[in-house]
Amino acid sequence: MGRLVCCLFVIVGSLFMSGVKSFTSLNNSATGYTFVVFEDSLYDTDSWFDARKLCRTDVSPFADLAEITDESDVTTVENLLSSSGASNPAYWLGIHNLEVYPSARFTASLQTGQPLTFDKWDTGRPKSDGVRCGTVKKDNNNWRDERCHLGSQLYGVLCRLPMQPSPIDSNTGCPPTMVPFEGKCYDFHILSNAWVNFTTARSTCEGLPGGRMVVPTSTMQEFVARYAILSGVLNFWLGVTDQEVDREFKGVYGEALDNPKWDTTDWDYGGQDGEVDCVFFDTSDGYWLTNDCNADLHGILCVVDPLVYAASTPGQFSPSAVSSAASATVTPSVGCKEIRRLLINQEPSFCPLICWAVCLSACLSVHVATTR
Fold it and tell me: Rounded to two decimals, what is the model's pTM?
């Protein structure tokens, strides 16, 4: 009985709080994407990289900062910002010049890095005086380029995700959170704030289906450098050590190094004598450096075989399957905010009713199961 009372308390409490929404969304059927804006100013951030993480963690693993690709997107974003409770005068967009600085050329897709084919720049923008990331103004929907870390200034967060998300991209075989390159999928772990040691990084990669640490070849050096910058992580462990012969580095899976990009100005270049050293990749300049393998100082970079990964993923999820999976994993301690996140493709006006129904169904199911 106590569990049922607790469940009802959760539902009544959620109903009471239904007027306070953390984010709202609007579909654009013309492009097949849902745009999402955080309404609570507590989510405003001075960092473009932190804004990306909020889209992935609080909206959906399929989400990222919004890209505006045509006039129908402009109209959708305008309607969303004007009808929501979001009050910030500007919002982060998924465009940047991080790959090509000091050029003013901005790239569009965070996944493909393709140049913009549509833009709506404000007068005098973009500039070419530094590393910059895109924003959109609420009053006129024009774009501006700002410093990617603003300091004291906070901007709102505008996200985008497919209306029909799939755990595997049918064109690349990669999950939407990974980046395809030369038939493989690269996971830059943009959501990982914690620095880890080499052993943890390796076990994390090898825990993924078909996953390994990355041993960059000469053909992938530029690619790794480009997307490492977009991750917002300062540096990543590479799958390179001198664990067999001191100061003789090779890949942890036996690979010979193909044109390694050593930072020859580093005092520790080549590692310390008499100890096992591991190699990390410096995102800021693209060079390799060495460090004690036990140092918890670097991020995680993995490569995945898409065929192995896809074989571990049972089929392609449809929107109904995503919704079913969401409701099946709900527990009485999960509020409407979490269920709303899982059902983000529903129009905002319908989501509350769905949330209450799922909450009630989940609570009653748990109550019945525990009283049998």
Answer: 0.72
